[in-house]
Amino acid sequence: MTDNSIAKKVLKNLGQMAEETGKEAVKQAGKVTESVISGRELFGVKPMSEEQLAQKKVEDEKKVKEETNNLLSRNVGAEIEQVRKEKEQAEEEKERRTLEQVRQQREAEEAERLQMTDIPGNPKREAAKTQFAPGKKKKQQPDPTQMSQTSEFKGGKID
Asked: Total domain count for the chain?
């Protein structure tokens, strides 16, 4: 029986310890919440008085009326036309820049091509340069005066 009573006493003491720990945790939590600084305290925001609140509402209403008047007095058609013109001008500028870049690229390619064909001492380039040029052509056959009627070549010897 003594073992049973010891177990009961241990459980009873554990219960008391848990209860005391819980109470201490609640006290500590209360202290933490008291030490927390709120946003109002941090930034120095103070609650407004009734007069200040009324004045703020009047100012807000005045701003809203001014903005509405500005919106109503705008010439929307003219603004749309202006935006359209600006967009067209931007597109034209972009197209002009693109065409200019293409022109410069072609000029650079043409200059490089001319430079490559003007290099002396390159027989392949010289041959390529004159390949399709009009002018004298090489004869494949001998002169007709050197040929006989039987199309035999006279070797300079008379039979």
From this structure: 1
